[in-house]
Design brief:
This protein has about 525 residues and is α/β, with parallel strands linked by helices.
C-alpha cells in the first residue's frame, strides 16, 4: 500500500500514512498541532545536465568582472537525471539518504569559525568559491557537496555595481513579460542584488531617473511592489506563510506531477530555475498557477521549492507572489494556459511532445477557496525599526543576508571596523537551499573580506555571537528580531527603506500604495 506525506500550515514535521490509491484523502490531522495537514505532491526529479543554459552561464561567469548572462532557456531534451537530484519536497535528504558529516576546518578557537571565502576581486575564480561552499557548507545543501555549482548571476558588490552601471530599462514596459527569445527579455536581473542589500531600492530607483517615462513608471512600480512585500512581511511575519484571505483552490482531476516534465513549458522553466536560479516574473506566475490553481498541490510546498533555488529568494516577495497568483492573498486567481505560452514563448509549444494533446489547452477553473481567518491586514502600524542610529561602542559589525552591501548602514558607519557573518546552521539544515544560493553569498562575503577584516562562522547565530559588542542594521524579517533580542546589539542602525512604513493597510498593493 503506498505511503503518502502530509504537512500542516504550521510547518510541523511531515506526517506519513499509508492509504490505497482510491482512498487517499487530501488532508489528515497533524499529530503535533492538531491542524489539517494537506497532502504533499512532489515535483519532478529533474537532474542537472549539460544544457544550453548551463553552458551559456558557465561561459559568462568566466569573466569575473561582469555579471553572468544566460543566452537561452535550457531545452528539456538536453537535461538528464543525474546522481544528485536538485530538489525534494517531503524530505530533503542527501542522495541515497546519505548524510555528509560536517568536519570544521580553519578553526582558530575550537568552535565553528570558517576560513573566509575566496575573493573573486582578488583573482580567485567562481570554481574556487564553489569548492569552498562544497567543503564547508555542502552538507547543508540540497545537492550535497558533489552536486554544487554556481547559478547564472554572480554575487558580490563589484558585480552589483557593474549591473547597476549598465542598467538600461528602455523598452521595459513592452518587454518585461517576454520569456523567449532571451535577448528580447526586458527584465533587468537586478533582484538578487536588491534582495541581499548589495543595491538598495533607492539606488536602483534613482538609477532609472532618465529612462523613458512609460518604462520608468512601470519599473518603479515593480520596485514599489518589492517595498510593499517588505512592509507586508514586517507586519505579518511568519503569518505570511499561511493563506491570508482565502484557502487555495482545490481542483480535482489532475493526476500528473504539478510541474510535468512532459510539458515543455514546465520542464524548460523548471530547468532554468534549477540551473540559473532566476526567472522572469511571467514564468514565476506560470509555475505558481500550474502548481496550485490547476494541479491543486499545496501552494506552500511550491513556494518552498521555488524559494530554495531562487538567487533572489526572499520569503517576503516569494510568498506574496504565490499568494497573489493562487488567490489566497488577492481574492482572484491567475489562470495559466497554453495561451500565455503561445504569446510569450511560442517556441516552447512548437517543440513540445504534447503540442497535439496539450493538457493546459483550456483555462483552469477560477473558483476561489473558502475565506479564512487570517492576520489583520487593515490599517495599523507597520514595524519599521529605528529612524536613526541607536547606541554606540560596538567593536564588530554583525552582517546578515538581508544587507551585505558596502552601503549597509552599520558597515558604512566605520569602514575599517571588523565584521562577522554566521551561516545559520539549524536554519540551513531545515531549508536545504540549493548550493548556488550559498555560492552567491560566499562570492559576496569573499569581496567583503578583501576590504575589511571578516570573520565567517557556522552554527546557531545567537550562540556564535554571544557576549560580543556588536553593531548591526535592523532588518524587516522575523528572524532578525528573534536573534537581536538574544544577542542585544549595542549599536542599531536604521533599515534603508525606499518608503518608511507608516500606519497603513497592507490588504492590497493598491490600498498600501495610497498611503505611500
Amino acid at each position: 500500500m503506498p505511503t503518502y506525506s502530509f504537512r500542516c500550515a504550521q510547518r510541523c514535521d511531515p506526517v506519513e500514512q499509508s492509504f490505497s490509491m482510491a482512498d487517499v484523502p487530501s488532508e489528515v490531522t497533524c499529530p503535533e498541532c492538531g491542524e489539517a495537514a494537506g497532502r504533499k505532491i512532489s515535483s519532478p526529479a529533474l537532474g542537472r545536465g549539460s544544457s544550453a543554459a548551463m553552458k551559456a552561464h558557465d561561459a559568462s561567469r568566466a569573466t569575473a568582472d561582469t555579471p553572468a548572462v544566460v543566452s537561452s532557456l535550457p531545452p528539456a531534451a538536453d537535461r538528464h537525471r543525474g546522481p544528485h537530484p536538485t530538489h525534494c519536497i517531503a524530505d530533503c535528504r542527501a542522495p541515497d539518504d546519505r548524510r555528509f558529516p560536517f568536519v570544521p576546518t580553519g578553526k582558530s578557537d575550537g568552535m565553528s569559525e570558517l576560513p573566509t571565502p575566496p575573493s573573486i576581486a582578488d583573482g580567485s575564480t567562481t570554481e574556487d568559491v564553489v569548492d569552498w561552499v562544497a567543503e564547508h557548507l555542502g552538507d547543508l545543501t540540497r545537492e550535497g557537496p558533489d552536486g554544487i555549482s554556481a547559478g547564472g548571476i554572480r554575487g558580490g558588490q563589484s558585480a552589483a555595481d557593474t549591473a547597476l552601471a549598465g542598467l538600461d530599462i528602455t523598452g521595459y514596459a513592452r518587454d518585461r513579460s517576454t520569456v523567449l527569445p532571451v535577448d528580447r527579455r526586458g527584465a533587468s536581473r537586478m533582484s538578487p542584488y536588491i534582495r541581499h542589500g548589495l543595491l538598495t531600492l533607492r539606488e536602483v530607483w534613482d538609477a532609472v531617473s532618465d529612462a523613458p517615462p512609460r518604462d520608468r513608471s512601470r519599473y518603479r512600480d515593480e520596485l514599489m511592489w518589492q517595498e510593499y512585500a517588505r512592509h507586508l512581511y514586517a507586519r505579518t511575519g511568519s503569518d505570511l506563510g499561511r493563506s491570508l484571505r482565502r484557502e487555495q483552490p482545490r481542483p480535482q482531476g489532475w493526476t500528473a506531477q504539478p510541474w510535468p516534465e512532459e510539458m515543455n513549458c514546465m520542464s524548460s522553466v523548471v530547468g532554468e530555475l534549477h540551473e540559473v536560479g532566476w526567472l522572469v516574473n511571467q514564468t514565476r506566475m506560470w509555475l505558481a498557477s500550474q502548481w496550485a490553481v490547476r494541479a491543486g498541490a499545496t501552494w506552500r510546498d511550491g513556494e518552498d521549492e521555488m524559494f530554495a533555488h531562487l538567487l533572489d529568494g526572499s520569503r517576503a516577495a516569494n510568498r506574496l507572489g504565490w499568494q497573489w497568483t493562487v488567490g489566497t492573498g488577492s481574492g482572484k486567481v491567475y489562470g495559466f494556459s497554453r495561451w500565455q505560452v503561445n504569446k510569450r514563448a511560442p517556441f516552447l509549444c512548437r517543440n513540445c511532445a504534447l503540442k497535439d494533446a496539450c493538457p493546459i489547452e483550456n483555462w483552469p477553473d477560477d473558483d476561489l477557496g473558502p475565506a479564512v481567518d487570517g492576520p489583520d491586514l487593515n490599517k495599523a502600524p507597520i514595524p519599521a525599526g529605528p529612524a536613526h542610529m541607536e547606541g554606540t561602542g560596538a567593536e564588530q559589525v554583525w552582517i546578515t543576508a538581508e544587507s551585505l552591501g558596502t552601503a549597509d548602514p552599520a558597515l558604512a558607519a566605520e569602514t575599517d571596523r571588523p565584521a562577522v557573518f554566521v551561516f545559520d546552521e539549524p536554519l540551513l539544515r531545515k531549508l536545504r537551499l540549493s548550493g548556488k544560493r550559498l555560492v552567491f553569498l560566499a562570492e559576496t562575503l569573499g569581496e567583503i573580506a578583501s576590504t575589511r577584516p571578516l570573520e565567517v562562522r557556522r552554527g546557531r547565530v545567537a550562540d556564535e555571537l554571544s557576549g560580543r559588542a556588536l553593531a548591526t542594521t535592523w532588518a524587516p524579517v522575523p528572524g532578525f528580531s528573534r536573534i537581536a533580542d538574544a544577542i542585544a546589539p549595542v549599536e542599531l542602525h536604521p533599515w534603508p527603506w525606499l518608503v518608511r512604513p507608516t500606519t497603513s493597510s497592507v490588504r492590497s498593493f493598491s490600498a498600501w500604495r495610497r498611503s505611500h
